[in-house]
Specification:
With 81 residues, the chain is mainly β. 0% of the residues lie in helices and 47% in strands. Strand 4 and strand 5 form a beta hairpin.
Length: 81
């Protein structure tokens, strides 16, 4: 089984949900498509969606909700479906 890494292209803060009251976009173990939103990157009050980038099963998040991230940082891992 091949493993893929979701990388952030932006610096900022990673969020797993749209608002503090919202459910997480996706949980570990869920099946995702390439365009499934797995989180948001917030930079100076502007939010950009971070997508899975490939289809598969979300194996694990490598950062926590609210963690600062840097460009090129691994956010999550996926396994081929």
């Amino acid at each position: 089984m091949a493993q893929h890494t979701v990388i952030t292209p932006l610096p900022g803060t990673f969020y797993r949900k749209a608002t503090p009251e919202s459910p997480n976009y996706v949980e570990a173990g869920a099946s995702v498509s390439a365009d499934t939103v797995i989180g948001l990157i917030e930079v100076m009050k502007q939010f950009s969606e971070l997508t899975a980038g490939t289809a598969g099963r979300l194996d694990a998040f490598l950062v926590e909700d609210g963690d600062p991230v840097e460009p090129g940082q691994a956010i999550a891992t996926l396994e081929d479906a």
